[in-house]
Specification:
The complex is a heterodimer of chains A (314) and B (255). Chain A is of the alpha+beta class and 314 residues long. Chain A is built from ten helices and 17 strands. Chain B has two helices and 18 strands. Classes of the chains: A alpha+beta (314), B mainly beta (255).
């Protein structure tokens, strides 16, 4: 199936956890201090996805050092090259590989994260930068977020001989509903060989990666809530764009927007998003939607009404 | 010779990052996209590849002006990049795949001032080739750029809105003091700008043009009023005057 231009809206929430620490600020949750909104980098989001695929046994280009001890000792490209030579009965040396179109195409076929998000890879005499067809903005919370008072924690690190712990801060957000905007570019997809199957894999990983990967002490308590990917007719004029500001949070049960602690403390209004969908309806080829049961089915019903069988849920 | 049209469009998005060319370890941002960024944006929307557009969007053939429509603020965040020192093919070096671990870099974002939904920059373009302008207008009107628009970095997806394509504009030298809506090359001034109450004029040294190998070939100082829509000044250089919709504006091209 052909790749189309597309938009992505993705929501997840974080409860008593640290969605993304700022390493320069005691690892405090990233904040836009002027608006009180919590921020999460695109890199953090993509890390969950890459780790998810790695755990599923896929080869992924951007790893963490500790995930593969061989990466730093042997050169990763050399490992890939010997795999290439073995699989293809070839005998390229590094210099030949750098100039080989076939090797580059083989690398792209092998590495899903590069096809989706791009990478800088060493090729020819220098490096080649693939700009990924899928790009995510930084996420931000749709409301002011309160950071809990830092409990001072003490921990013993392995290898320390004395009996004293080290004191550190343990910052967490009380509650944060985070929203990301993403795009898919069909022109960029051509450069990295992105397939429709990659996009389906992305859809699934967006929903499954966080529950599976965010399991360490500081990351537990995060739940995907909504994922919407829209595909547009080629050459069509109308786009949904970034609709994060069109979502309306209405606090319930005496809560205010500043004191949210749980998904049950507010309702999410989609009317303005659905209005936007109506305005660009003619451009839409296909829409893929996943919504967490706790959000209810209002959004799905609204989309269904406008898009009919162009809406797929999963 | 009849004058070619002036195309006016807006670049909008949640936030942007327009990296300063003279910083090294910290990634600081201009408050607005410099001319090179706008040229790359236009080229990408029209489908040029990275190394193809230097001439068509160079200072000689293409004139670009920019105005900051939504006040901006800066937000500093430390980010983890991959350490890529050295070369991944050679012994013990390189790390495009993350094998050398991360390096932490301060990164400065441009956010809209509190109370604004998104950033908005207005861009004015004209070109010596009327057909080139026609194809840019088609891209803007169709709403389907070949490569997607960004506000400086790929993590800042944005969108463009076609505002006007007009022949109702003129370029010339003017003797009187004028309110200039666009960012203003410092070299264009013939005297100090008027400093009314609340005016905050900032000077930014920005790149203006790259050659086909993406090397910097021109840079210049640009002035912009952080606190308001224009700078009032008497000018030495040519000023354009344009009318579209309800607007009547004066501007100076970045060069």
């Amino acid at each position: 199936m052909a790749i189309h231009d597309g938009d992505i809206l993705y929501l997840y929430d974080a409860k008593l956890t640290n969605p993304n620490g700022d390493p320069d600020d005691e690892n405090r949750p990233r904040m836009d201090e002027a608006t009180g909104r919590n921020l999460v980098s695109d890199v953090r989001l993509k890390r969950y996805l890459r780790d998810y695929w790695l755990d599923a046994g896929e080869d992924i280009w951007v790893r963490r050092t500790e995930q593969d001890e061989t990466t730093s000792s042997k050169q990763r490209m050399s490992v890939l090259l010997s795999d290439y030579n073995r699989d293809n009965g070839a005998n390229l040396n590094e210099r030949q590989a750098r100039q080989s179109r076939e090797f580059k195409d083989w690398l792209l076929r092998r590495l899903r994260d590069v096809r989706l998000f791009g990478a800088t890879m060493p090729m020819e005499n220098t490096s080649v930068t693939f700009t990924g067809p899928v790009q995510f903005s930084w996420g931000y919370s749709l409301h002011r977020v309160e950071i809990n008072n830092s409990a001072t924690i003490s921990s013993h690190f392995a290898g320390r001989e004395n009996e004293y712990g080290t004191f550190g801060k343990d910052w967490r957000v009380h509650y944060s509903l985070l929203a990301f905007y993403g795009i898919v570019s069909k022109s960029r997809a051509r450069h990295t060989g992105l397939t429709d199957e990659d996009l389906t894999a992305l859809d699934e990983a967006m929903v499954r990666a966080i529950p599976q990967q965010a399991t360490t002490r500081s990351k537990i308590g995060q739940t995907p809530r909504l994922y919407l990917r829209v595909e547009y007719e080629d050459g069509s004029a109308l786009r949904l764009g970034d609709v994060r500001e069109d979502l309306v949070l209405t606090p319930q049960d005496g809560k205010t927007l500043d004191t949210l602690r749980d998904i049950r403390d507010f309702s999410l209004g989609y009317d303005r998003v659905l209005e936007r969908v109506r305005a660009v309806e003619d451009s839409i080829v296909r829409t893929r939607l996943w919504a967490h049961p706790e959000l209810g089915d209002a959004f799905e019903c609204g989309l269904q009404e406008r898009l009919g069988d162009r809406l797929e849920t999963f | 010779m009849p004058q070619n049209p002036l195309i006016v469009f807006d670049l909008c998005g949640a936030y942007g990052m327009f990296r300063k060319f003279y910083t090294n370890s910290s990634s600081l941002s201009y408050p607005f996209p410099p001319r090179t960024t706008v040229a790359g944006l236009i080229a990408g929307m029209m489908g040029y590849e990275r190394d193809e557009y230097a001439e068509d969007l160079g200072l000689e053939r293409c004139h670009i002006a920019l105005s900051v429509r939504v006040p901006v603020r800066r937000v500093m965040q430390q980010v983890n990049y991959l350490m890529t020192e050295g070369h991944v093919w050679t012994g013990g070096a390189g790390g495009f795949d993350g094998s050398k671990g991360p390096i932490q870099v301060p990164l400065e974002w441009i956010f809209p001032e509190v109370g604004y939904r998104e950033l908005r920059y207005r861009i004015y373009v004209t070109h010596e080739d009327r057909r080139w302008l026609e194809s840019l207008r088609e891209v803007l009107e169709s709403g389907a750029p070949v490569y997607p628009p960004y506000l400086g970095m790929s993590e800042c997806p944005g969108r463009v809105e076609h505002v006007a394509s007009t022949e109702d504009w003129s370029l010339g030298r003017r003797g009187e003091e004028l309110p200039i809506s666009t960012v203003l090359p410092a070299s264009a001034l013939s005297g100090p700008p008027r400093l009314g109450a609340g005016t905050q004029i900032v000077k930014e040294r920005t790149p203006l043009a790259l050659d086909e190998r993406r090397r910097l070939i021109a840079a210049g100082d640009l002035l912009y009023n952080r606190a308001g829509p224009h700078i009032t000044a008497r000018l030495e250089s040519e000023v354009f005057e344009v009318s579209y919709q309800e607007s009547h504006e004066y501007g100076v091209f970045m060069q």
